[in-house]
Amino acid sequence: MSKGSVAVNRARLMFAMTLSCSVLFGCAGTPPGDRSDAAAPPPRRHQAVAGDTLPSYESVANLRGVITSIGASTTTNLVARASTQFRRIYPDVRLHVSAGLTSIGPPALLEGRADIVPMSRPLTPEEIRAFRAKYGYPPTEIKVAADALAIYVEKRNPVPGLTLTQLDGIFSGAPGRGDPSIETWGQAGLTGEWADRHINLYGYGPEDGVNQVFRQQVLDGGEYRLAMLVEPAGSSIVQGVAADPSGIGCASIFFLSRRVRAVPLARTDGPFYDPTPENVHAHAYPLIRYLCICVNKPPNRPLRGPAVEFLRFLLSREGQQIIAAEGNIPLNAKSVQEGHEALDGS
Fold first, then answer.
1. What pLDDT, on the 0 to 100 scale, is given for residue 180?
2. Which of 26, 203, 328, 340 could make an SS bond with 84 (beta carbons 3.0 to 4.6 A apart)?
């Protein structure tokens, strides 16, 4: 791929992913940018992981006001889905949303323009340092959902599993895990008619959270191949792979469809694990992330107001069941408890 083509793809990504909207709680649909479409199946329910052991949400009286949310479209979609039920509890609370690439959130929190910042990746050391330099303490990151980053191939591709080392060899321009570059499916272990097929790569642009998480967890901070076709959303990555028997791509398990399959992964030589909620919570599946919401909370002081009540709702039984019903992976009880402790200042 030429440098000009890379620039065009990056411009396409920025145009497609950056958006801004202002909505009332309960009035917003799923914001565009990184949402499911025709390539995705009906929502998968993960109710068993949400469980009935999580605490129910306890409402407070006379809550009103405005919550300003600026951040990643992926996690903002989750926020929007939970907003309908929250609106029924608190009709006098409004939410103003700006959603786009993950990078728009941290500066908004730093500058005091956002009450909550949905994130699809962890804060970077640079973002934390800038916040600490201004406020004297780091931002608080509250996990609201778990996610498996699935490696997708077309459903007829017979590859039984891949290691992180093999993924590095496939996606990296200069593999850093010690193994050689992998450019054909034969080098990835397939035989017969698949052996000479060139591997075609599909992925996100450099500003996206999945791109950055994959780069750190798989490429050890290295660079992607320039030949990777940059797509603006997880749904289009899956669509591209579904139409290309030689293709491979990484996107959230949220976008799993009938035309592709998610390849089992291993850290080294095995065992291999599927991207199931159980394997995510056990940290057996090796490529996971958490969808978080960042807030400005001084140490040892609980948050107050509409924003914290919305976060408490997301961490409740009802909030996690909404997350599960729409296809995201809900948190386990330990992560929920950690979130409540962070909000309460302990």
1. 84
2. 26
Q: Is the pLDDT of residue 34 over 80?
A: no
The reply to whether 206 and 315 lie within a common domain is no
Compute CA distances 100 → 17, 20, 175, 262, 345, whole Å.
5, 7, 30, 26, 30
| Residues 51 and 99 both lie in one domain | yes
| End residue of a domain, out of 281, 315, 336 | 281
Given a cut of 90, whether residue 218 has pLDDT beyond it is yes
Give 91-94 contacts, CB < 8 A, sequence gap 24+: 92/63, 92/64, 92/65, 93/25, 93/63, 93/64, 93/65, 93/66, 93/67, 93/306, 93/309, 93/310, 94/24, 94/25, 94/65, 94/66, 94/67
Residues 64 and 102 in one domain: yes
- 313 or 326: whose pLDDT is higher? 313
**Residue 142 shares a structural domain with residue 41:** yes
Query: Do 160 and 125 share a structural domain?
Result: no
CATH label of the domain that carries residue 48: 3.40.190.10
- 19 within some domain: yes
| Residue 306 domain boundaries | 10-146+293-344
Contacts of 308 (CB under 8 A, 6+ apart): 295, 302, 343
User: Comparing C-alpha atoms, which of 242, 243, 263 is closest to residue 253?
Assistant: 263
Query: Are 98 and 198 found together in one domain?
Result: no
Q: Measure the CA dihedral 80/13/204/199, to 10°.
A: 140
- Give the model's pLDDT for residue 276: 96
CA-closest candidate to residue 164, choices 149, 146, 147, 153: 149
Cα separation, 39 vs 30, whole angstroms:
16
Question: What pLDDT is attached to residue 25?
Answer: 41
Whether residue 111 lies inside any domain: the answer is yes
Q: Which of 153-157, 296-300, 301-305 has the lowest mean pLDDT?
A: 301-305
Neighbouring residues of 127: CB distance < 8 A, sequence distance ≥ 6: 106, 110, 139
Each residue's pLDDT tens digit, 44-77: 444 445 555 788 999 999 999 999 999 998 899 8
User: Are residues 283 and 144 in contact, defined by beta-carbon separation less than 8 angstroms?
Assistant: no
